[in-house]
Structures are given as structure tokens and as C-alpha cells.
Amino acid sequence: MIPKEIIKHIRRIEIRSGKLVNEIFAGQYSSVFKGRGMEFAEVREYMPGDDIRAIDWNVTARYGRPFIKKFTEERELTVILLVDASGSQKFGSRSRQKSELAAEIASVLAFSAIKNNDRVGMITFTDRIEKVIRPKKGKNHILRLIREILCCSPQSRGTNLALPLQYLNELWRRKAVVFLISDFRDEGFDSALKVTARRHDLVAVKISDPRENELPKVGLIELEDAETGARRVVDTDDEMAARLFSEAQRRQDETVNSLCTRAGVDRIDVSTAEPYVMPLIRFFKRREKRLAF
After folding, report:
1. Which residues of 172-181 are buried (b: 16+ CB within 10 A; e: fewer)?
2. Second label for 287, Cα 20 to 30 Å away, from 12, 201, 205, 219?
3. 20 near 277, Cβ under 8 Å?
């Protein structure tokens, strides 16, 4: 039985996502994520202004007047959401946890996909594959994905980003649009990232919380690693300790950014402290601008 508060939360996400998709993202999604290619539609007579490279010379020779081939885009895509369910995703210093933000981002992307008649699947992971949901269409399917993210009870708390990427490459051979939604608190996944980026259209969605970048000055506090359970007492009034904490996060962020750049992976940065609409809009506009050239 799903708790009533989760049902209400899913309903709120559905309403918010549906409005954003209808007003903003459906058209942008369609313009930046193309189908698998072009498929033959028909042959018709040549008209002034048609591209002469499309002339069907066999039909032209048969009828003694020019005909051209018409093609249409094979629009249908497969979208795969790789969603981090590790212990650190349950952290949030503001009004929502990172896992809740992940559910909202996944909802907007998924509803944009089905609005364009694409199929959506999902793999949730920690340092193991937690759940695999095969790609399907339909509103009820998307609501199931949201529910799985919010109600996820993972078997582990750690993170292994290479694992879902490798698993996807073995599971799904055809090119797909892949969104890797995580806080990217891991190392050693650069090779898997590059391989997946070559096979699929991979987009990294990095979720953060402002408290991970800067410690509040509240004296002595005990910090616990949400994934390993390790604990450490830190004096937040110590400027050196605070600076080391912030620098470690900055280096981790720069490393992820560098890995994505080298692998040719687009990146969307979202935070639990800010609306996610503008980062998504900036992402779509960057993609549109790049495709225009």
C-alpha cells in the first residue's frame, strides 16, 4: 500500500510537470532530440524548388518525366533514465531531498518524451542495479516511474556510476537518449561514461544541495557519510576546516565537469535550493543553438 502523502506528492509532480511540458518543454524536446533517421515515404513528381538530389532516376526513366523520393523522420525514440538511489540522494537541507528533485526532473523529461510519442524506461542504481523498468509509453507508466523513485527502498547505500552505464550498454544496443540523474559522488566511471556517450545520446543531470558546498557556522557538529556511515566531528567555526570542505566539493565538481567535457556529454546542473526550470531551458537552448550550425 502506497502512503497517502506519497500519492499526493506524485499527483503534485504530475500536475506541475504536465503544465511545464505543455507550456515549455514538449516543443523544445522534439527539436533537440531527433529520431533514429529518415524512412522512405513516397515518390511524387518533381516540382520547381525541389532538391534535385532527391530525384528517383529509375522512376524518372520509366515515366519520362522527373520524380523525387520523399522521406519522413523516423521520430520514435527510446529514452532511458538512469536514476541514482544511493544514500546521499536522501539528503536535503531545504524544502526537498535530492531524490525528490530527481523525481521531478525525471517526470518533466518523461512526460516530454511521451508527448512526442517516445518510449521511456528507467534503471535505478546504487552500487548495484536496484530496479530495471523496460521502456513503454503512456501516462500510467510515467506515474509508475515517479512512484518508484519516491518509494525506492534500495538494497545498498553506495554509488557505482560505471555499473548502470555498463549495464545499459549491454541491455540496450540501439541508440537511445539517456539521462544520468545523480549527484555524481563517485570516481572511476570516466571510461564507462565515454563508451556510453559514443553509443547513446547521453546527458548528465547533476543534483546538488547548497549545504554540500558550505558548512554553517554552528560550532562542533558530527557529520555522517550517507553512503558509508562513517562519522566525523567538525568544528564549523574553524575557517581552515570550512575552507577545506568547500575546496573538496569544488574539486569534485570540476572533475565531473572535466569528465563530461572530454566525453562529449551535455550537463544540466540543478539544486534543491533553486527552481529547475531555468537550467532545463538553458540546456535545450544550448542544444538548439548547436544543432543549428
Report:
1. beeebbbbbb
2. 12
3. yes
Q: Which CATH superfamily is domain 4-33+76-291 in?
A: von Willebrand factor, type A domain (3.40.50.410)
For the stretch 213-222, pLDDT in tens is 887 787 888 7
Listed residue (253, 90, 106, 107) closest to 159, CA to CA: 90
Q: What is the pTM of this model?
A: 0.84
**Crossing angle between the packed helical segments 98-115 and 4-20, to the nearest 10 degrees:** 50
Instruction: Indicate the domain borders of the chain.
Output: 4-33+76-291, 37-74
pLDDT tens track for 60-103: 888 889 988 876 555 578 999 999 999 999 988 878 899 999 99
* Rama region for 229: left / alpha / beta (φ>0; ψ in -120 to 50; rest): left
Give the number of residues written for the chain. Answer: 293
